[in-house]
Protein backbone atom coordinates (compact mmCIF):
# COMPACT_ATOMS: atom_id res chain seq x y z
CA UNK A 1 0.00 0.00 0.00
CA UNK A 2 1.67 3.18 -1.18
CA UNK A 3 0.92 6.20 1.02
CA UNK A 4 -0.46 8.29 -1.83
CA UNK A 5 -2.79 10.56 0.17
CA UNK A 6 -1.75 13.59 2.21
CA UNK A 7 -3.13 15.41 5.24
CA UNK A 8 -1.71 18.87 5.93
CA UNK A 9 -1.53 19.63 9.63
CA UNK A 10 0.25 22.60 11.22
CA UNK A 11 2.67 22.87 8.30
CA UNK A 12 3.37 19.14 8.42
CA UNK A 13 2.54 16.69 5.65
CA UNK A 14 1.13 13.37 6.81
CA UNK A 15 1.21 10.59 4.22
CA UNK A 16 -1.55 7.99 4.42
CA UNK A 17 -3.52 5.39 2.46
CA UNK A 18 -6.69 3.33 2.84
CA UNK A 19 -7.98 0.17 1.23
CA UNK A 20 -10.87 -2.25 1.43
CA UNK A 21 -14.43 -2.01 2.69
CA UNK A 22 -16.13 -2.75 5.97
CA UNK A 23 -15.55 -1.56 9.55
CA UNK A 24 -12.62 0.88 9.78
CA UNK A 25 -9.30 -0.25 11.27
CA UNK A 26 -6.53 2.30 11.86
CA UNK A 27 -2.95 1.10 12.35
CA UNK A 28 -0.50 3.17 14.42
CA UNK A 29 3.24 2.53 14.22
CA UNK A 30 5.92 3.32 16.77
CA UNK A 31 9.57 4.34 16.81
CA UNK A 32 11.84 4.01 14.92
CA UNK A 33 9.37 2.34 12.61
CA UNK A 34 6.77 3.40 10.05
CA UNK A 35 3.51 2.09 8.66
CA UNK A 36 5.55 -0.43 6.65
CA UNK A 37 5.53 -2.79 9.65
CA UNK A 38 1.74 -2.95 9.52
CA UNK A 39 1.35 -3.06 5.74
CA UNK A 40 1.06 -6.88 5.32
CA UNK A 41 -1.49 -7.06 8.15
CA UNK A 42 -3.54 -4.20 6.74
CA UNK A 43 -3.44 -5.74 3.28
CA UNK A 44 -4.71 -9.08 4.59
CA UNK A 45 -7.52 -7.47 6.59
CA UNK A 46 -8.66 -5.26 3.71
CA UNK A 47 -10.84 -8.10 2.41
CA UNK A 48 -13.20 -7.53 5.36
CA UNK A 49 -12.28 -4.12 6.76
CA UNK A 50 -11.43 -0.63 5.56
CA UNK A 51 -7.83 -0.29 6.69
CA UNK A 52 -5.90 2.93 7.21
CA UNK A 53 -2.11 3.28 7.27
CA UNK A 54 -0.28 6.51 8.06
CA UNK A 55 3.19 7.70 8.98
CA UNK A 56 3.63 10.05 11.91
CA UNK A 57 5.44 13.30 11.07
CA UNK A 58 9.14 12.68 11.51
CA UNK A 59 8.79 9.09 10.32
CA UNK A 60 8.54 7.10 7.11
CA UNK A 61 7.17 9.04 4.16
CA UNK A 62 5.75 11.96 6.16
CA UNK A 63 7.53 15.29 6.50
CA UNK A 64 10.64 15.48 8.68
CA UNK A 65 11.23 19.22 8.99
CA UNK A 66 13.65 19.98 11.84
CA UNK A 67 11.57 22.84 13.25
CA UNK A 68 8.60 20.57 13.95
CA UNK A 69 8.44 18.73 17.30
CA UNK A 70 7.69 15.02 16.99
CA UNK A 71 6.97 14.31 20.67
CA UNK A 72 4.09 12.17 21.91
CA UNK A 73 1.90 15.13 22.82
CA UNK A 74 2.03 16.43 19.24
CA UNK A 75 1.40 12.99 17.73
CA UNK A 76 -1.63 12.43 20.00
CA UNK A 77 -3.22 15.71 18.90
CA UNK A 78 -2.49 14.88 15.29
CA UNK A 79 -4.11 11.44 15.51
CA UNK A 80 -7.28 12.95 16.96
CA UNK A 81 -7.45 15.47 14.10
CA UNK A 82 -6.59 12.83 11.49
CA UNK A 83 -9.45 10.58 12.63
CA UNK A 84 -11.77 13.57 12.36
CA UNK A 85 -10.40 14.34 8.90
CA UNK A 86 -11.22 10.78 7.84
CA UNK A 87 -14.70 11.20 9.35
CA UNK A 88 -14.47 7.82 11.07
CA UNK A 89 -17.15 6.76 13.52
CA UNK A 90 -15.50 4.71 16.29
CA UNK A 91 -12.78 2.89 14.33
CA UNK A 92 -10.79 -0.03 15.67
CA UNK A 93 -7.20 0.97 16.55
CA UNK A 94 -4.26 -1.44 16.22
CA UNK A 95 -1.10 0.04 17.74
CA UNK A 96 2.55 -0.77 18.36
CA UNK A 97 5.28 0.83 20.48
CA UNK A 98 4.83 4.65 20.55
CA UNK A 99 1.57 4.15 18.68
CA UNK A 100 0.06 2.86 21.91
CA UNK A 101 0.86 6.05 23.81
CA UNK A 102 -0.31 8.17 20.87
CA UNK A 103 -3.67 6.38 20.66
CA UNK A 104 -4.18 6.47 24.43
CA UNK A 105 -3.51 10.21 24.52
CA UNK A 106 -5.85 10.82 21.57
CA UNK A 107 -8.60 8.91 23.37
CA UNK A 108 -8.13 10.08 26.96
CA UNK A 109 -7.06 13.68 26.36
CA UNK A 110 -8.61 14.60 23.01
CA UNK A 111 -11.86 12.63 23.01
CA UNK A 112 -11.26 10.28 20.08
CA UNK A 113 -13.76 7.39 20.30
CA UNK A 114 -12.73 3.85 19.37
CA UNK A 115 -14.67 0.64 18.84
CA UNK A 116 -11.71 -1.30 20.26
CA UNK A 117 -8.03 -0.88 20.98
CA UNK A 118 -5.26 -3.42 20.40
CA UNK A 119 -2.01 -2.59 22.21
CA UNK A 120 0.93 -4.56 20.80
CA UNK A 121 4.23 -4.23 22.72
CA UNK A 122 3.39 -0.60 23.43
CA UNK A 123 4.94 2.33 25.24
CA UNK A 124 2.39 3.03 27.96
CA UNK A 125 3.85 2.45 31.43
CA UNK A 126 6.76 4.04 33.26
CA UNK A 127 9.63 3.53 33.21
CA UNK A 128 10.47 3.51 29.52
CA UNK A 129 13.30 4.78 27.33
CA UNK A 130 16.52 2.86 26.78
CA UNK A 131 20.02 3.88 27.79
CA UNK A 132 20.57 4.80 24.15
CA UNK A 133 17.57 7.16 24.27
CA UNK A 134 19.03 8.85 27.33
CA UNK A 135 22.44 9.23 25.69
CA UNK A 136 20.92 10.86 22.61
CA UNK A 137 18.74 13.16 24.74
CA UNK A 138 21.74 14.29 26.80
CA UNK A 139 24.20 14.79 23.92
CA UNK A 140 22.29 14.98 20.59
CA UNK A 141 25.13 16.83 18.84
CA UNK A 142 27.39 13.81 19.36
CA UNK A 143 25.09 11.73 17.15
CA UNK A 144 23.75 14.12 14.49
CA UNK A 145 27.32 14.76 13.29
CA UNK A 146 28.26 11.09 12.86
CA UNK A 147 29.73 10.07 9.53
CA UNK A 148 27.07 8.45 7.30
CA UNK A 149 28.59 4.95 7.37
CA UNK A 150 28.95 5.00 11.17
CA UNK A 151 25.38 6.25 11.53
CA UNK A 152 24.06 3.51 9.26
CA UNK A 153 25.95 0.85 11.21
CA UNK A 154 24.55 2.19 14.48
CA UNK A 155 20.98 2.23 13.18
CA UNK A 156 21.28 -1.30 11.78
CA UNK A 157 22.59 -2.61 15.10
CA UNK A 158 19.91 -0.77 17.06
CA UNK A 159 17.01 -1.99 14.91
CA UNK A 160 18.36 -5.56 14.79
CA UNK A 161 18.11 -5.70 18.58
CA UNK A 162 14.34 -5.36 18.45
CA UNK A 163 13.94 -8.81 16.87
CA UNK A 164 14.21 -12.04 18.85
CA UNK A 165 14.49 -14.38 15.86
CA UNK A 166 16.72 -12.19 13.70
CA UNK A 167 15.80 -10.06 10.70
CA UNK A 168 16.11 -10.94 7.05
CA UNK A 169 18.45 -8.56 5.26
CA UNK A 170 15.61 -7.23 3.08
CA UNK A 171 13.50 -6.40 6.13
CA UNK A 172 16.41 -4.81 7.97
CA UNK A 173 17.33 -2.69 4.95
CA UNK A 174 13.74 -1.49 4.57
CA UNK A 175 13.52 -0.50 8.24
CA UNK A 176 16.85 1.34 8.12
CA UNK A 177 16.26 3.16 4.82
CA UNK A 178 14.08 6.06 6.11
CA UNK A 179 16.84 7.08 8.52
CA UNK A 180 19.65 7.43 5.98
CA UNK A 181 20.74 10.64 4.32
CA UNK A 182 21.00 14.03 6.01
CA UNK A 183 17.26 14.44 6.64
CA UNK A 184 16.78 10.90 7.88
CA UNK A 185 19.83 11.01 10.16
CA UNK A 186 18.68 14.16 11.94
CA UNK A 187 15.11 12.88 12.20
CA UNK A 188 16.29 9.61 13.74
CA UNK A 189 18.02 11.32 16.66
CA UNK A 190 15.39 14.06 16.98
CA UNK A 191 12.63 11.63 17.89
CA UNK A 192 14.85 10.14 20.59
CA UNK A 193 15.93 13.53 21.91
CA UNK A 194 12.25 14.49 22.32
CA UNK A 195 11.25 11.27 24.09
CA UNK A 196 9.78 12.30 27.44
CA UNK A 197 8.10 9.99 29.94
CA UNK A 198 5.97 12.94 31.08
CA UNK A 199 3.67 12.29 28.12
CA UNK A 200 2.74 8.82 29.37
CA UNK A 201 2.77 9.92 33.01
CA UNK A 202 -0.04 12.31 32.07
CA UNK A 203 -2.37 9.48 31.01
CA UNK A 204 -1.15 6.42 32.93
CA UNK A 205 -3.31 7.19 36.02
CA UNK A 206 -6.37 7.23 33.74
CA UNK A 207 -6.07 3.76 32.21
CA UNK A 208 -8.66 2.54 34.69
CA UNK A 209 -11.17 4.84 32.98
CA UNK A 210 -10.94 3.01 29.66
CA UNK A 211 -14.42 1.79 28.80
CA UNK A 212 -13.93 -0.13 25.56
CA UNK A 213 -12.64 -3.54 24.51
CA UNK A 214 -8.85 -3.66 24.88
CA UNK A 215 -6.45 -6.40 23.77
CA UNK A 216 -2.86 -6.44 25.03
CA UNK A 217 -0.48 -8.52 22.88
CA UNK A 218 3.20 -8.94 23.77
CA UNK A 219 6.24 -10.89 22.64
CA UNK A 220 7.55 -12.89 25.60
CA UNK A 221 11.14 -12.18 24.56
CA UNK A 222 10.72 -8.42 24.09
CA UNK A 223 13.94 -6.87 25.44
CA UNK A 224 12.97 -3.30 24.52
CA UNK A 225 9.79 -3.29 26.63
CA UNK A 226 9.90 -6.41 28.85
CA UNK A 227 6.86 -8.63 29.19
CA UNK A 228 6.20 -7.61 32.80
CA UNK A 229 4.73 -4.41 31.30
CA UNK A 230 2.13 -6.52 29.51
CA UNK A 231 0.91 -8.03 32.76
CA UNK A 232 0.88 -4.65 34.50
CA UNK A 233 -0.93 -2.93 31.64
CA UNK A 234 -3.60 -5.61 31.27
CA UNK A 235 -4.21 -5.55 35.03
CA UNK A 236 -4.64 -1.77 34.95
CA UNK A 237 -7.27 -1.68 32.18
CA UNK A 238 -10.72 -3.00 33.14
CA UNK A 239 -11.60 -6.15 31.21
CA UNK A 240 -8.47 -6.14 29.07
CA UNK A 241 -7.52 -9.40 27.37
CA UNK A 242 -3.87 -10.46 27.43
CA UNK A 243 -2.10 -12.55 24.78
CA UNK A 244 1.58 -13.46 25.14
CA UNK A 245 3.37 -14.68 22.02
CA UNK A 246 6.25 -17.14 22.38
CA UNK A 247 9.49 -16.78 20.43
CA UNK A 248 8.81 -13.12 19.66
CA UNK A 249 10.57 -9.91 20.61
CA UNK A 250 9.59 -6.29 20.19
CA UNK A 251 9.32 -6.67 16.41
CA UNK A 252 6.55 -9.20 16.82
CA UNK A 253 5.25 -8.34 13.33
CA UNK A 254 8.39 -9.93 11.85
CA UNK A 255 9.17 -12.53 14.52
CA UNK A 256 5.71 -14.13 14.60
CA UNK A 257 3.60 -12.64 11.79
CA UNK A 258 1.17 -15.55 11.45
CA UNK A 259 0.45 -15.70 15.19
CA UNK A 260 -0.12 -11.95 15.36
CA UNK A 261 -2.25 -11.81 12.21
CA UNK A 262 -4.47 -14.65 13.41
CA UNK A 263 -5.00 -13.06 16.82
CA UNK A 264 -5.78 -9.63 15.40
CA UNK A 265 -8.23 -11.09 12.88
CA UNK A 266 -10.08 -12.98 15.62
CA UNK A 267 -10.16 -9.89 17.80
CA UNK A 268 -11.46 -7.55 15.10
CA UNK A 269 -13.95 -10.05 13.69
CA UNK A 270 -15.47 -10.74 17.10
CA UNK A 271 -15.99 -7.03 17.72
CA UNK A 272 -17.21 -6.21 14.23
CA UNK A 273 -19.19 -9.25 13.11
CA UNK A 274 -19.92 -11.12 16.34
CA UNK A 275 -17.69 -14.07 15.44
CA UNK A 276 -16.19 -16.14 18.24
CA UNK A 277 -12.90 -14.70 19.45
From TrEMBL:
Domain (AB hydrolase-1): residue spans on this chain: 23-257
Single annotated GO MF: catalytic activity
InterPro entries noted in UniProt: AB_hydrolase_1, AB_hydrolase_fold, AB_hydrolase_sf
Name the UniProt record assigns to this protein: Pimeloyl-ACP methyl ester carboxylesterase
Lineage: Bacteria, Bacillati, Actinomycetota, Actinomycetes, Pseudonocardiales
Amino acid sequence: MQLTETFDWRDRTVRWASRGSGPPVVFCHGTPWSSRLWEPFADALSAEFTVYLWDMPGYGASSKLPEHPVSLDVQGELLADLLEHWNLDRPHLVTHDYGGAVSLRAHLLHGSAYASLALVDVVALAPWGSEFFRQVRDTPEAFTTLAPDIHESLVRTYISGASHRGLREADLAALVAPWLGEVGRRAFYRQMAEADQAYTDAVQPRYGELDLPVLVVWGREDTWIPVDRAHRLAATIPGAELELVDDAGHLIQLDQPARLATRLHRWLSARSFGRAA
